[in-house]
Amino acid sequence: MTAALPLVLTVFVACAVEAIEALTIVLAAGLTRQWRSTFQGMAAALVVLAAIVGVLGPTITLLPLTALRLVVGALLLIFGLQWLRKAILRAAGYKALHDEASAYLREVAAAKAAPEVAKRGISDWYAFTLAFKGVLLEGLEVVFIVITFGANQRNLGAAVVGAAIAVVVVAVTGIAVRAPLAKVPENAMKFAVGIMLTSFGTFWGAEGAGVKWPGSDAALLVIVPVVAVVSLGYAVWLRRAHRANADAGPQAQVSQAEGVTS
Amino acid sequence: MLRALKSFGAFWYDFVIGDDWHVAAIVVAALALTALLVHVAGVNAWWLVPLAAFAALAWSLRRATGGKS
Questions:
Q1: Which of residues 206-225 of A touch B (CB under 8 A)?
Q2: For the complex shown, is ipTM > 0.85?
Q3: pTM, two decimal places
Q4: Phi-psi region of B28 (alpha: psi -120 to 50; beta: other; left: phi over 0)
Q5: Do A79 and B65 touch (CB under 8 A)?
Q6: For every one of its 262 residues, what pLDDT tens digit does chain A have, with 9 covering 90 and above?
Q7: How far apart are CA B14 and CA A20, in angstroms?
Q8: Which of A148, A204, A247, B3 could be cross-linked to A69 through a Cys-Cys bond (beta carbons 3.0 to 4.6 Å apart)?
């Protein structure tokens, strides 16, 4: 159980972040349009996600461990560096912080403007597709993390448990407050998930390439803090540079804004 | 049909590769070089992938901020 703890915690935090974003979309659809079609859309997306885990999970575990670690390690490392890049740009002030309250208002405005159309036995097609797309797209990242972490540690069950607990916690909280969970430190959570994905991706990818880590599995106890310190260092360095450029004048800020690609 | 395939491909490209393809290219190159060092040269190059990951992240951040910092 102790060995599965980092796995369950990483999947739990990653899944909670994505579930919070999906909850914002579901609430906007349900409270603005109608709950019946929203629940149908949400249920359809959950069935698709469960089918992906059910098919891909056992299939991927059939691969030899070395090949699995190389491929999955590479994917996790690329994925983790993407998360870290965005989190650092947000922490440094180059990219707007993810704000569930404003995301909710945007979704509500769009939902109010759309006409109510019945289609394929669904009374409100807009609410159905909004909930379906929201849950499916946010859920795909979770599925990716569940399958890669679970398969690599040969413990898909623990990864699924971590994801399921996160979904239940977020759903219950969302039902209780009936509002987007804007006070959750989402950006800090994304930073933490980026650090874990990058660390595990580095460890498994290099191992799949044939490396023998000094200290074997204990190397992770060094890799995770080193990745955290370097990432926080980049964030501090960029934040200082951003402030210095802001102090230098509006022209510098315009050039910087043009340089931020996403 | 072709449009649907293109959208499908674009979605997965965006999902896996993301905003900066250079990061993915550096990761793949680092893993390939590590495998070569280990299996051909007999060097246990455990340090190469973390160094490449930090370098890729720094380079990507510098590009994203317009190279001003």
A1: 206, 208-214, 219, 223
A2: yes
A3: 0.77
A4: alpha
A5: no
A6: 456 777 788 888 888 888 888 888 888 888 787 888 888 888 898 888 888 878 877 777 777 778 888 988 898 899 889 989 989 998 888 777 666 667 777 777 777 667 676 677 777 788 888 888 888 888 888 888 888 877 777 777 888 888 888 888 888 887 777 766 666 677 888 888 889 889 989 999 999 999 999 988 888 889 999 999 999 999 998 888 878 777 776 555 545 544 444 4
A7: 21
A8: A204
